[in-house]
Design brief:
The protein is mainly α. About 70% of the residues lie in helices and about 0% in strands. The protein is built from six helices and no strands. InterPro entries: ARM-like, ARM-type_fold, Exportin-1/Importin-b-like, Importin-beta_N, Importin_beta-like_NTR.
Length: about 120
């Protein structure tokens, strides 16, 4: 659980590209490989944190960070059974603002790719 918290803090700090990339990649990898280790009561908090990080993406955000966060959110949506309507929620959150179209399109691109690459 410590790695989740440290990654979240590093993303909040936005020190430099390398630390943000490391944090976003760690978050993605932890969701892909270790989501089962996270207590169910923490799932919503993780989702909200990822959505908040993604909402802060702007034209200065490096593409690799956007991709890592988008894949992390897509994998979370596929594994978090309590998240009833992830696609609707993401569209509602990011669809109304032109500055959010880039991350929205990235999420909508990687979601089916992640769904097809996961063993069901």
């Amino acid at each position: 659980i410590y790695a989740w918290k440290v990654s979240d803090e590093m993303l909040q700090q936005k020190r430099d590209l390398e630390s943000c990339y490391f944090a976003a990649q760690t978050m993605r990898t932890k969701i892909q490989l270790s989501f089962h280790e996270l207590p169910p009561e923490s799932h919503s908090s993780l989702r909200d944190s990822l959505l908040e990080h993604i909402s802060q993406i702007n034209e200065h955000t490096n593409t690799i960070i956007v991709t890592q966060l988008s894949v992390a959110l897509a994998d979370l949506a596929l594994q978090m059974t309590s998240w009833q309507k992830p696609v609707v929620d993401v569209i509602n959150r990011f669809g109304g603002n032109a500055s959010s179209f880039w991350p929205l399109l990235e999420i909508m691109t990687v979601l089916p790719e992640e769904a097809m690459s996961r063993p069901l």
